[in-house]
Design brief:
Chain A: InterPro entries: Ariadne, ARIH1-like_UBL, E3_UB_ligase_RBR, IBR_dom, TRIAD_supradom, Znf_C3HC4_RING-type, Znf_RING, Znf_RING/FYVE/PHD. The complex is a heterodimer of chains A (556) and B (222). Chain A is mostly helical and 556 residues long. Chain A contains 18 helices and 12 strands. Classes of the chains: A mainly alpha (556), B alpha+beta (222). The complex binds zinc ion (4 copies).
Chain lengths: 556, 222
């Protein structure tokens, strides 16, 4: 007996083979993916088959798979209590799918649970003098014999012309006496089928409600699913919507599950590793739903779909700070800057930070406005807030001014990478044109020019990493670990800027082969730097290596 | 015919035919979906003798969605906003049933006037007043019924104090003249004194609980 009660929050583990089964509505891989797979081998970094520390174990579940998990719970309860599946479902929904609590409460007082869940009427409200109806109280549902009726509601046709005159039915809602079909729950509150249809449809479509009560005033009975199905008639779209609402409710009740936040997506992700608050202090659970590789989201927060390498709490702190300080920092977001030499306005286009003034040909870095010559070669310190160099300046200024400047330093770089990442989308379009050009002017095939696309993707990805490394660096306490962190950050930034610049170059047909080699090599390198950045930061979290200069929610 | 229109037309006709209930419905414009409902204040309450008007809008998905109602007539009641006329009543929200009608809903409003629910208030200040001193609350509600809903003059029987047609701001706020005068004498503006004392619920037993310093402190706030 106790076995029946022993399963815990991880109950879906027992259905593993069921979930592994090919699911019927999973999307087929596009032919693009197949080609890319072959091509991707060019970029494989050797020896990385093991799970990386910045990755989290997560499993995408289709709606059908979640429905099967729900069904397993329903069947379980239905079996223990000896009630119809639709009743078990209402009971579970009422208890937010907490099986233990339901079983406990049901054992304690089944009638009370039935009444609270809208499965049965309270004794004093049970319909009287209803000749043909069963008394709607809990014992009715506990009969398990073969004669168990499949429905706890009535649907009947008023025969016309009715043999009994007095049976002329006037629906109390639409006042229509020509309606021939009526429906009622076990409370026997009778309404015409078209009113039920309008009511149920509105509840589902407009209110997103999955617990739909009887229409009678003060009646607390909840319509079981077969009744809703019948009320909806052949409106399969609304029925599907209803199923979706049930799945969402189930998912929201389970800490191991999260619904994909992308619009109209019906997938769920299971990620038990990120189910607790404390887990989120050492991992960044970036997951992908099964519907599309683009449906990437953070299992732990809604800050941003992928804020690796920084943990949810710190990412949230940073965004809050940016929000609070947005007025002071707003000017930085502007799309234009003045050339530091001739003061003419320069618009940034493309993601590269290496700017050349169209007028005076002065080359400078978009981020720090310093001459590019110092960046391109050995010394590249644009990622650091050089505490020593600014020491003198800071002495002259007030403390608050200094802390604002410190913030602006990180914010500047954070916002810049975000903006550059967005501009990468333009770069993407330009790149597609270039790829077409290449196919015409060279011998290269469509697959062979994909290196451009891959490079743009990589630049985008790394800029997102870089962006969040600045949020993290802002909160990192000074010391060795932070210095190593910023070294990795600088290496990645340098590599990304180089690759980005390579992509902005105009294409000379004679140089395509060498460009391809350069871009491919650089892409592999950038990928490697990004791996190092993510991996090392993730390991730091797991080891508790990072020290913070502010209080991080949940950490001492 | 559209089911909503058929139902609303029938409801309006039923209401017209039923003279016993004293519930009235008028079309506001040509649409039967914007109505003005009214009913007399229930007997034996501070609202007795008043005529209360309610703005009614019938939503697109009526009767599956509740009617939208708010008082046009100003009412002093814990479940009605003294400023906007918004009503806190369960059947206008979650407890709505498609079986309810214009008439039955207006009757529910009428009975809400008989039995306030101060624990689920729409107007917190009024609710506090109700909880602190029932008699003071009732005289304020009666005064509001007089000046806003055409009810009898509560002062008429004890000699007709206060000039006719002139509104007494102190009585509207449900305060004692002596208390307002006391703080006005300290050099504060009368309107501000009324405002602060009303917010502090300076009534009944509270008068002994709230120190003079506390009131002055509030009065000094900008
Ligand atoms: Zn009907
Ligand atoms: Zn019912
Ligand atoms: Zn998705
Ligand atoms: Zn997160």
């Amino acid at each position: 007996m106790s076995d029946d009660y022993s399963d815990d929050d991880y109950y879906y583990d027992e259905d593993e083979d069921m979930m592994d089964a090919e699911d019927d509505d999973g999307s087929a891989p596009s032919d693009d993916d197949m080609d890319m797979e072959v091509f991707d081998n060019d970029f494989k970094i050797p020896g990385k088959a093991v799970k990386k520390s910045y990755e989290v174990d997560a499993e995408p579940l289709s709606q059908a798979q979640v429905e099967r998990l729900m069904q397993a719970d329903v069947d379980h309860i239905s079996g223990i209590f000896g009630v119809e599946a639709s009743v078990a479902s209402l009971l579970l929904r009422h208890m937010n799918w907490n099986k233990e609590r339901l079983i406990e409460k049901y054992m304690d007082n089944a009638t009370a649970v039935n009444v609270d869940a809208g499965v049965a009427l309270a004794e004093d409200e049970a319909p009287k003098a209803a000749t043909n109806s069963r008394v709607a109280s809990s014992p009715k549902f506990s009969s398990t014999g073969p004669t168990r009726s499949t429905r706890s509601f009535k649907s009947s046709k008023v025969k016309s012309p009715s043999p009994k005159r007095e049976e002329l039915f006037v629906c109390p809602i639409c006042f229509d006496d020509t309606q021939t079909q009526t429906m009622s729950l076990s409370c026997t509150h009778k309404f015409c089928a078209s009113c039920w249809n309008a009511y149920v449809t509105g509840k589902i479509r407009e209110e997103g409600e999955h617990s739909i009560r009887c229409m009678a005033e003060g009646c607390a009975l909840v319509a079981p699913d077969p009744f809703i199905h019948e009320a909806l008639g052949n409106d399969t779209a609304t029925w599907t919507r209803f199923q979706g609402l049930l799945v969402r409710h189930f998912v929201s009740c389970n800490r191991n599950l999260k619904f994909c936040p992308y619009p109209n997506c019906t997938y769920t992700v299971s990620c038990p590793a990120a189910a607790t608050k404390s887990a989120l202090l050492s991992i960044v659970p970036t997951v992908v739903c099964g519907a599309s590789p683009d449906h990437k989201f953070c299992f732990g927060c809604a800050v941003e779909s992928d804020h690796r390498p920084v943990i949810c709490a710190v990412a949230g702190m940073w965004l809050q700070k940016c929000h609070d300080d947005s007025e002071t920092a707003n000017w930085i977001k502007s799309n234009t800057k003045e050339c530091s030499k001739c003061q003419s306005t320069i618009e940034k286009n493309g993601g590269c930070n290496h700017m050349t003034c169209k007028k005076c040909k002065h080359e400078f870095c978009w981020v720090c406005m310093g001459p590019w010559t110092e960046h391109g070669t050995a010394w590249y310190s644009c990622n650091r807030y050089d505490e020593k160099a600014s020491q003198d300046a800071r002495d002259a200024q007030s403390k608050s001014r200094a802390s604002l400047e410190r913030y602006l330093h990180y914010y500047n770089r954070w916002a810049n990478h975000e903006q550059s990442a967005k501009l990468s989308m333009d770069l993407y379009k330009k790149t597609e044109q270039k790829m077409e050009e290449m196919q015409i002017t060279s011998e290269l095939t469509w697959i062979e020019v994909q290196f451009m696309k891959k490079a743009v993707d990589e630049v985008f990805k790394c800029r997102m990493t870089l962006k969040w490394t600045y949020a993290m660096a802002y909160y990192l306490e000074r010391g060795n670990p932070k210095e190593l962190f910023e070294d990795n950050q600088r290496d990645l930034e340098k590599a990304v800027e180089d690759l980005s610049e390579l992509l902005e170059q105009s294409i000379e047909p004679a140089e395509i082969a060498s460009l391809r080699q350069k871009v491919t090599d650089k892409t592999v390198y950038v990928q490697k730097r990004n791996e190092i950045m993510l991996e090392d930061t993730a390991n730091g979290f797991l080891e508790g290596r990072w020290e913070w200069n502010s209080t991080v929610d949940g950490l001492d | 015919m559209d089911a909503r229109l058929r139902r609303v037309n029938k409801e309006i006709a039923d209401c017209k035919n039923d003279r016993s209930s004293k519930i009235q419905l008028e079309l506001v414009d040509d649409s039967p979906f914007h109505l003005n409902g009214s009913f007399p204040g229930p007997e034996g309450t501070p609202y007795e003798g008043g005529h209360f008007e309610v703005d009614i809008r019938i939503p697109e998905s009526y009767p599956f969605q509740p009617l939208k109602m708010k008082f046009i007539t100003k009412v002093y009641h814990p479940n009605v906003s003294s400023a906007s006329g918004a009503i806190c009543l369960d059947i206008l929200k979650d407890a709505w049933s498609p079986v309810l009608t214009l008439k039955s809903t207006l009757i529910s409003l009428q009975s809400l006037l008989c039995s306030p629910e101060p624990n689920d208030p729409q107007d917190a200040e009024v609710a506090k007043h109700y909880m602190t001193s029932r008699s003071s609350f009732e005289s304020t509600a009666r005064y509001w019924t007089h000046i806003y809903a055409g009810g009898p003059d509560p002062n008429a029987k004890d000699g007709g104090k206060g000039k006719d047609g002139q509104r007494d701001e102190v009585a509207i706020a449900g305060l004692e003249k002596a208390h307002v005068n006391q703080f006005e004498a300290l050099g504060f503006e009368r309107g501000k004194v009324i405002d602060v004392l009303r917010r502090l619920n300076y009534r009944g037993v509270n008068v002994t609980k709230i120190t003079e310093d506390r009131v002055v402190e509030e009065l000094l706030k900008p």
